[in-house]
UniProtKB/TrEMBL annotation:
Organismal lineage: Eukaryota, Fungi, Dikarya, Ascomycota, Pezizomycotina
GO molecular function per UniProt: ethanolamine-phosphate cytidylyltransferase activity
Residue span, Cytidyltransferase-like domain: 32-155
One of the Pfam families matching this protein, by short name: CTP_transf_like
InterPro entries: CCT, Cyt_trans-like, Ect1/PCYT2, Rossmann-like_a/b/a_fold
Similarity remark: Belongs to the cytidylyltransferase family.
GO cellular component: cytoplasm
Enzyme Commission number(s): 2.7.7.14
Protein name: ethanolamine-phosphate cytidylyltransferase
Gene3D superfamilies: HUPs
GO biological process, one term: phosphatidylethanolamine biosynthetic process
């Protein structure tokens, strides 16, 4: 059963989100739409490229019912998928219930001149191009599809329990010394990967420096063993924006596997908690805001939030099977595109020791946050260090608390037959879509 919004133009006053009146169409206001099932870096890459083509990005999100009719069952429900889009740094506004076949009245109502999509063909349940109407109107632009990652790929990893996506060493991979293929192919992959990290470490415009990116270099035992005090060393990958005067340094860490609404809401709650701390210490008082504008040319928030991301083998040590489903670079890119963080540290230790926190290039954190851990059977407390430093804080249960990698895999396995059929249907549609793409290319 479809909603009143699916596949048709809403009546006046019945649009799914404001504005209810038609907006003036702007060349710089770009529309992109999709299912956005799972928050993987391919979705973020599409939004980043689309955002660079204008100054505002409107993101249409299809309903669960429309996706089921045209593609198969979703893994994440609409509310969870909207939360993920809203968290993307490059998204200006999300529009739930956007039609599966992109309609010009929807695009124009929200003030968008152009629709952007990857260079792959997307078809509806009848096998017709979902973008045929905007293409015919000359209002369609193509960006490059991110290779090597898709919702279909991730579901396949879960169903087949593969481990071929694991990264052994962040540093060696980025140096082109490790990975699949010959030396030349590994080098090319490393160059492309570093460029992608740099691209994702941009601000809301997608054009200027944004988050900093670091890797932590320490022993394997220090990454796994909570008893080892090791400062290690920090290597900067991307310069980005560092902490500003007066900002509190805040640290969070995790696996962030299958980066979902559970992770996103945790990060949002951390930022919200620090905003409340900022309010208490007068951060938002008018004279202090004016002072920041005079001194720095911009205003900024009261906290600088750093996300530490664990290596694949560290997560696998605790979770077993073929976890993490996403490798460290895929997880890192997901965190990097999130508007609630300001820096990322690859290869962070599972237990942040006092030595590790004290060696931070940003300065020793003022706060370390963590939420309740329900998926890993811990045999010790990983946060004894920050607790001794009296900087440990918790984020209590929230609306998406249950949404983690284990929950998502369980959803897949409970409906295994339906998702396997979706995989087969996707392959069959892919053959047809490739033929359509070939015909379009030949006619150009």
């Amino acid at each position: 059963m479809t909603t009143p919004f699916d596949g048709q133009v809403p009546q006046p006053g019945q649009w799914p989100v404001d504005p209810q009146e038609d907006m003036p169409v702007s060349e710089g206001r770009i529309w992109v739409d999709g299912c956005f099932d799972f928050t993987h870096h391919g979705h973020a890459g599409a939004m980043l490229q689309a955002r660079k083509l204008g100054n505002q990005l409107v993101v249409g999100i299809h309903s669960d019912e429309a996706i089921l009719e045209n593609k198969g069952p979703t893994v994440m429900n609409l509310r969870e998928r909207v939360a993920a889009v809203d968290a993307c740094r490059w998204a200006t506004q999300s529009i739930p219930h956007a039609p599966y076949v992109t309609q010009l009245p929807w695009v124009s109502h929200y003030g968008c001149r152009y629709v952007v999509h990857g260079d792959d063909i997307t078809s509806d349940s009848n096998g017709e191009d979902c973008y045929r109407f905007v293409k015919a109107a000359g209002r369609f632009k193509v960006v490059k599809r991110t290779p090597g990652i898709s919702t279909t790929d991730l579901v396949g990893r879960m169903l087949l329990c593969t481990k071929g996506h694991f990264i052994k060493s962040v540093k060696r991979t980025l140096n082109g010394e490790e990975g699949s293929g010959n030396a030349e192919e590994r080098k090319a992959f490393a160059v492309d990967l570093l460029q992608r990290i740099q691209d994702y470490a941009t601000d809301e415009s997608g054009l200027k420096p944004g988050p900093q990116v670091w890797t932590w270099i320490g022993s394997q035992s220090a990454k796994l063993d909570h008893m080892i005090e090791e400062a290690g060393s920090f290597d900067k990958l991307v310069g980005g924006k560092g902490p500003k005067p007066g900002q509190r340094i805040v640290y969070v860490d995790g696996g962030f596997d299958l980066f979902s609404s559970g992770h996103i809401e945790f990060l949002r709650q951390v930022l919200h908690s620090e905003e409340k701390v900022g309010l208490e210490r007068g951060w938002y008082e008018s004279d202090r805001q004016q002072q920041r504008l005079r001194d720095h040319g911009e205003d900024f928030g009261p906290a600088y939030i750093i996300a530490g991301i664990h290596d694949d083998d560290v997560i696998n040590h605790w979770k077993g099977l073929n976890y993490p489903i996403m490798n460290i670079f895929e997880r890192g890119l997901c965190v990097l595109q999130c508007r609630y963080i300001h820096a990322v540290i690859f290869s962070a230790p599972f237990s942040p020791s006092q030595s590790y926190l004290g060696a931070f290039p940003f300065g020793t954190p003022n706060a370390v946050y963590h939420g309740p851990t329900t998926f890993i059977p811990l045999t010790y407390d990983p946060y004894t260090g920050p607790k001794k430093m009296q900087i440990f804080n918790t984020i209590e249960n929230h609306a998406f608390q249950h949404v983690n990698a284990g929950e998502i895999v369980e959803r897949i396995l409970k409906s295994r037959e339906a998702y396997e059929e979706r995989q087969r249907a996707k392959l069959q549609k892919g053959i047809v879509e490739d033929l359509v793409k070939s015909k379009e290319t030949m006619s150009q």
